[in-house]
Amino acid sequence: MQVTKSEIRAHKRKIYISVLRFLLIIRKIHRYSKKGRSEKVRKLAEKNVEIFYRLGPTFIKFGQVLSSRGDMFPQEYIDKMSELQDIVPPAPFEEIRKEIEEEYGRPLESVFEEFEREPIFSASLGQVHLAKLNGRRIVVKVLRPGIRRRVALDLGAIKSMKFLFKVLMGDEFYIMAQRMISTFERSIYDEMDYRKEARNLLEISGNLYSREKDLRIPGIYMDLVREKVLPMEYIPGIKITDVEKLKEKGFDLKSLASRVVEVFTTMVIKDNVFHAD
């Protein structure tokens, strides 16, 4: 999605103060971290989480990236930023309907037998709805309407403010931030193309099914996959962080954690293709 320089300048004015606050908080965090004042660091990190939520989808995703950068931030900051949940209010159903119908070129009802208006999950880039296809319950992932334009504006504004990183944070932080922003830009645009996600999931499935007999991976309805729509097999489950529910179901948490690490490490090291979630 291309946006003009004047649009980026206007958007920059809207978010400038928030980005400046974020950087000033980071400066304080590094200062307090050197003094060992962990509680101060945690409180400041909470303020950054609030800023990212207020700035919206792109920054929520960016905050999640920051939570993995132990080379740039103290552990107390990392711990708090890792609490950033990829959950935002859902887009209105009529906007979602429009996106789906534009992708397929026909009415929603002619694609799916049923399609629930309320999503079961709403994230920064897309949301997930239950539906029915050929008598089977499935889930349909739909890209959030207007998200490509919003990401383009946010990234354009961030890149135009990189001088602030250098002035306020110094050369070392500036260089690392440049690299991180560049990597983030590539990954977020990839993430907004569900055709790529579908192909990657098929490759992951092929790799894992050849050796991991205890795993179940959702099937993809490839004939209905579009850039903004991803229909998948519906497999109910328990979130890995819902420890109490896992205990109720009788899972051995240590064995489960070990299995997750084993599978993920194999995907990264052996297959070189992995699902980051």
Structure explained in plain terms:
This protein is α+β, with helices and mostly antiparallel strands and 277 residues long. The chain is 58% helix and 9% strand. It is built from 11 helices and 5 strands; from the N terminus they run αααααββββααααβαα. The chain has helices spanning 5-34, 38-55, 57-66, 75-81, 93-104, 147-160, 162-169, 171-191, 194-209, 243-248, 253-271, and strands at residues 114-115, 121-122, 126-133, 136-143, 229-233. Strands 1, 2, 3, 4 and 5 form a 5-stranded antiparallel beta sheet that branches. Strand 2 and strand 3 (126-133) form a beta hairpin. Helix 1 crosses helix 6 (147-160), helix 1 packs parallel to helix 7 and helix 7 (162-169) packs antiparallel against helix 8 (171-191). The longest helix has 30 residues, at 5-34. The model has no long low-confidence stretch (mean pLDDT 90).
Let me know the largest β-sheet. Answer: 5 strands, antiparallel
Instruction: Provide a count of the helices.
Output: 11
Computed CA radius of gyration, to the nearest angstrom: 21 Å
Shape: globular
Given helix and strand content, the structural type is alpha+beta
Helix content: 55-70%
Question: What is the number of E strands?
Answer: 5
Show the helix and strand layout.
Layout lengths: L4 H30 L3 H18 L1 H10 L8 H7 L11 H12 L9 E2 L5 E2 L3 E8 L2 E8 L3 H14 L1 H8 L1 H21 L2 H16 L19 E5 L9 H6 L4 H19 L6
Antiparallel strand pairs: 1-3, 2-3, 3-4, 4-5
Summarize the structure.
The chain is of the alpha+beta class and 277 residues long.
Features:
single chain, 277 residues, 5 strands, 9% strand, globular
